[in-house]
Model the fold of this input.
Amino acid sequence: MKALKLKTIAVVCSALVTGAASAGQVLFKNVDIFNGTENKLYEDHFVLVEDNKIKRISAKSIKADSEATVIDGTGKTLTPGFIENHAHLMLMGPTLPAMESNATWEDFAIHGTRMAEMYLMQGFTTVRDAGGANGGLRRAIDAGQIKGPRFYPSGAFLSARGGHADFANYSSPVGAETNMGRLNLAQEADSVAEIKKYARNNMRMGATQLKYMQSGGVTSAFDPWQLLAGSKEELEAAVGVADSYGSYVMAHSYRKEAIIAALNAGVKTIEHGFMFDCEISELMKEKGAYITTNITAFDPGLLDIPAVKNVPSSLRKAKSATEAFKTYMPSMTKECPAPRGFQTDCVGSVDACNIQIAYEKHLNNQFFGPFESLKTLTSVGGEIAALTGDYWNPYPEGKLGVIEVGAYADILLLDGNPLKDFSIVGTGDKWFGAEKRSDSPETIKLIMKDGVIYKNTL
Done:
């Protein structure tokens, strides 16, 4: 009896911490379903959730338990929860040098906690972190200690010296410890042996997949964006470690040669991939690979960001990159599309990332239209999450990104039809100079993750 009382108290405390309503059985009635894969809505349907899974879907009325929560979704679209495939929840900015010299674990942890809640309340029930987060944030979310999405961290960035995640200062000697290295947010790895060591440590610390910096970047200090950072042997070393866990490697790749080298080494997701073309598309199909691209990178306003505009080398790199990336859109939208996951790639304040996420949604719709954008936000992201395999995936018992029997009950109710009015997913048509956004879009009426309701304004 005493044990039962203690268990009850623990459940109540957990509910108070998360501010969420436990599901049991939840019956959605009179909803129009977007299932994540088809360019249509299934109108006036019933969906029964039991515990954390979708139990039944029917065009006819479903009988639920007498104590079930019944939600009338007339005029609403029921969709899978959104999936972000490239975030950096722990990295608060405002610059990489500032994080290297001035940030402690407390700074990163507090920022990560706030980012996790922001993402969930924007409708994202799953987030894949693309570097700079270990397993602690996921454990806290999954234990109900903080609000947040399902979380797939990559551990420390794996970067060559002088590569895109070399956060040391100019005079740092080879092998010197850095703040980011000490906290296992970024590691300098310059040999097969070092890559294996840090990759294994990432998995030990809770990474679900690995992130390798195969190209340079625009705002990083030491590298041209065209950099081909990793040798064949180094890439294969990272892939080998991930494969031993049944998981995979994601590679930061801009240059075409970097993308091809990564795919040939066994990398499963290309991050950014701005020089994507039909040759790459064919190779991706052959390898069963995916791409995630931050469409905001094609915004002309990018050249006006202080970190770009005020640094001559970064401005020069940004201009040359803009010219080189012209093959991406015609290839991806018309000539040879490839499976593409949603990516924001924001490093900065919670408010700034909230704005960027909304603008990224807007640009996806502008370039790809409502259906492809919705698929990118849902089922494709679920396929990417499943690449972590049967025994390393932290959420192995159901599908993500789809509405089907047996899938996890990660569900949104939207006020309207997103195939006709995509703005109801929470878009914003302005990035720089945009006003602060609300904590959660008014048009997202309900947010459920793992069968638990975190928002209900019906």
Observations:
- The first strand starts at residue 25 and ends at 33.
- The chain has two domains: 17-81+402-456, 85-388.
- The mean pLDDT is 92.
